[in-house]
Design a protein that fits this description.
single chain, mainly alpha, two-stranded antiparallel ribbon, elongated
Length: 128
Amino acid sequence: MGYAIQGQGHNPRKWLAQESSDLAVRIPHLDEIPPQAILPLAKLVADGESDARKLALALDIDKAQLAEYLNALCEFKFAEESWNGYKATSAGEHAFEAVGQRMVARELFEVKARLQQLEQLRRHLNGS
């Protein structure tokens, strides 16, 4: 029939890696941090300074894994240690803004594709 609707599903590890790799041309070292490190960076950009315990709880990330992400973020100057834990740097804010814009564009593309599938199905069901 050709009208099957399939959810794309989100694989953050895959699309974060892809976006980081694509943006590495514009943002130095972005491809050198683990793609999942964007998640704690996003939290730091959105909420400001935070300690590792709060980040681990908020993101449901293992503390050892989070430590790896934070170390990478700090090594490449996307974040830095502060009195209260960690905070995003201006480079980190810029990197997250670029990744965020790409994420929104990707999501809009996927939503539009899903809407087209639903419209096709509706037309088929209505016999037009």
